[in-house]
Amino acid sequence: MSYDSRFMIPPGVARKLARGADGNENAIVVGNRAGVIEWANDAWTRVTGYALDESISKPVLSFLRNVDVGPGIVDFVADCFRQGKVCEVEVPLTTPKGEFLWIQLRVEPLRDASAEVSDFIAIATDITERKRVQANADVAEIDLSVLAARAAQTHASVRGPCTDIDLELAEDLPLVLADASLIEGLIGRLICRAAVDVGEGWGNVSVSTGVLGSRPGPLFIGDLFRGLPRGNYAFVEVHDTGGGSSGSRRAATTEPFLSPHFPRHAIHHTTAELLIRNLGGVLRLESSWGLGTSVVMLLPFCGDEGFDLP
Fold first, then answer.
1. In this predicted model, what pLDDT tens digit does every residue of 295-307 receive, in sequence order?
2. pLDDT at 108 over 90
3. For the chain, which residues make up each domain, given as ranges?
4. Following CA atoms 56, 59, 64, 66 in sequence, which dihedral angle do they give, to the nearest 10 degrees?
């Protein structure tokens, strides 16, 4: 597709962007004022894993939703585009092959001769390795029981008058390699979201830790071993019984880390899943109408003890 003459950047510059003057490392797409992708360079497929015919002629916001980018990020990009503002976000992305990546996405609205937003250009850069290096820089040996107890104490005030927060924390838990502030923050978010779900009615929030394969284990009733690499794992689980101000059960949740107690920094489930995966672990979510929600974080530990997966 030829470059539209309405764009206020010279066609020669656009062609250089299309070819990737910086070594073709960046994926570039161009779209119209409706947000529909009209053109993409070859690097788009290499960076995102999506073929050109899977992206062209489709709304860029629809593409973001299809790759499980959180709705808050999608809304932010849409608002910036409507207001004619440049936006830059770092988002987790799942490729068609199931590979988890971090993408830095810069979306810049383009204006016509009347200074009205007419089109957009978006540049996507794979920053997975940078994210992994950053995560590894903060990794240390941590005790999940210690972090869970601290998070529960920090956020105890969020529970309703009829809500109990029960702690079932294993002693002498094998240490795992992880970012302490990250894991404690994720546990805190789960506790706050669980307390909100229970609301003013009678309910229970339980926080437990242990070694996978030991007893007592998680309340999670699904398959914790599915897709889990062979090894030894410690777990931390936050479970709630649901509830609500009228005592009625609440619907299932797909975003267990979102809470009104953390309004400035939203962490979506796909982001948390990628953060845990970068540490060699797995995140499990189980939520249903009437039964509440259970979230289990599984992190590997080094040692001879524990349950060796078949």
1. 999 999 876 544 4
2. no
3. 11-133, 138-300
4. -80
Question: What CATH number was assigned to the domain covering residues 11-133?
Answer: 3.30.450.20
Both tokens of residue 295? 């979230």
User: Which residue, among 64, 131, 130, has the nearest Cα to 93 in the 3D structure?
Assistant: 64
Burial class (CB in 10 A: 0-12, 13-18, 19+), 217: middle
Task: At 245, give phi and psi (nearest 5°).
Answer: -60, -30
Dihedral (CA of 303, 304, 309, 310) sign: positive
> Model confidence over 274-300: pLDDT tens digits?
889 888 899 999 988 767 899 999 999
For residues 82 and 50, give the distance between their C-alpha atoms in angstroms, rounded to a whole number: 26
| Amino acid present at 119 | D
Yes or no: say if 131 and 51 are a contact pair by the CB < 8 Å rule: no
Distance in angstroms (rounded) separating the CA atoms of residues 145 and 100 = 28
Question: H/E/C letters for each residue in the chain?
Answer: CCCCCCCCCCHHHHHHHHHCCCCCCCEEEEEECCCEEEEECCHHHHHHCCCHHHCCCCEHHHHHHHCCCCHHHHHHHHHHHHCCCCEEEEEEEECCCCCEEEEEEEEEEEECCCCCEEEEEEEEEECHHHHHHHHHHCCEEECHHHHHHHHHHHCHHHCCCCEEEEEECCCCCCCEEECHHHHHHHHHHHHHHHHHHHCCCCEEEEEEEEECCCCCCCCCCCCCCCCCCCCCEEEEEEEECCCCCCCCCCCCCCCCCCCCCCCCCCCCHHHHHHHHHHCCCEEEEEEECCCEEEEEEEEEECCCCCCCCC
pTM for this entry: 0.63
Query: At 42, phi and psi to the nearest 5?
Result: -65, -30
CATH of domain 138-300: 3.30.565.10
pLDDT for 214 beyond 70: yes
